[in-house]
Specification:
Elements: H1 12-28, E1 36-39, E2 46-48, H2 52-57, H3 64-69, H4 78-84, E3 90-92, H5 94-101, E4 107-112, H6 115-124, E5 131-135, H7 138-144, E6 153-157, H8 166-180, E7 185-192, H9 197-206, E8 213-219, E9 230-236, H10 242-257, E10 263-270, E11 276-277
Parallel strand pairs: 1-4, 1-6, 4-5, 6-7
Antiparallel strand pairs: 2-3, 7-9, 8-9, 8-10, 10-11
Length: 278
């Protein structure tokens, strides 16, 4: 799977990933103490939906396009939609979303391996002392940049799934990060596609020595077909309010984006909690 993000910005997978990111940041902001965020695969930070890449696939139209056009979104989506829809024709990546919600005392570290994308990040965040942009491998950053001095915050691991061994690197990187920052919240994004790779990954997570980990899935079409069927996250040390928030919001998102073929699931991968389905 080649996931150069300019082609996929604002799609269904982005919606669920970025909603969980925003809800996690809002929870961190409920306390006065500053927080740290590490984005291991940051991309370019913000995306032009009228550019050739996004226009060629049009994936955003079935994702954030439908969500912004839907009537009466629930209040729990307001912070996400305010940032996602702030600039017509553009969609914020996770770096731009995070910066929009950060306070002066909070700190953001962005890691990007693609030289041109890293240069774009540096231009976008030039002059913002809260944001550090690092050129390099995101998995290595899970060792070099953790634990942070703030001691509270989150890590977003959102790999491109270009390498044949990406699933193995993702699991190893997550384990390494959690070993170094046991009380941090880790948001791990992965695609839902045919072939069962995501199911094997969840099974390996369930057998790992991880803190409580919540599995989140938003599905918009059957996995038996080609392409992306939806997006999922494993949330290590999730905010205590996250499960209840998503139980209210995921059904609405399914109705907004894929009322005929959509589905959702919340599942505690590490913890004795029941599976919740619609």
């Amino acid at each position: 799977m080649n996931y150069r993000h300019a082609y996929h910005a604002g799609n269904v997978a982005d919606v669920v990933k970025h909603l969980v990111l925003v809800l996690t940041i809002l929870h961190l902001k409920s306390k006065d103490a500053p927080f740290f965020m590490l984005d291991t695969h940051a991309g370019i930070g913000s995306y032009d939906l009228t550019a050739d890449e996004a226009s060629r696939t049009g994936e955003w139209r079935n994702g954030i396009g439908k969500v912004l056009a839907a009537a009466e979104p629930p209040p729990g989506l307001s912070a996400y939609l305010a940032v996602a829809g702030a600039e017509p024709g553009r969609y914020p990546g996770s770096p731009a979303l995070a910066r929009a919600l950060m306070r002066p005392s909070d700190r953001l570290a962005l890691v990007e391996l693609h030289p041109q994308d890293c240069a774009s990040l540096r231009r976008l965040f030039a002059g913002d002392s809260r944001v550090g942009v690092h050129f390099g491998d995101g998995y290595a950053a899970l060792k070099s940049l953790l634990p942070p001095p703030e001691r509270r915050g989150l890590v977003l691991i959102d790999p491109p799934f270009e390498a044949a061994d990406e699933w193995d690197r993702l699991l190893a990187g997550l384990r390494r990060g959690v070993e170094r920052w046991r009380n941090g919240t880790f948001l791990v994004w992965y695609p839902l596609k045919a072939g069962g790779a995501d199911e094997r990954f969840r099974a390996e997570l369930a057998m790992s020595d991880l803190p409580p980990t919540l599995g989140v899935e938003l599905i918009t079409r059957p996995r038996s077909g080609p392409g992306l069927a939806g997006g999922a996250l494993a949330v290590v040390n999730p905010p205590w309010v996250l499960e209840d928030q998503l139980r209210r919001l995921l059904p609405w998102l399914v109705q907004a984006m894929a009322p005929e073929t959509g589905d959702w699931r919340l599942e505690w991968l590490v913890a004795e909690r029941p599976v919740t389905r619609n």
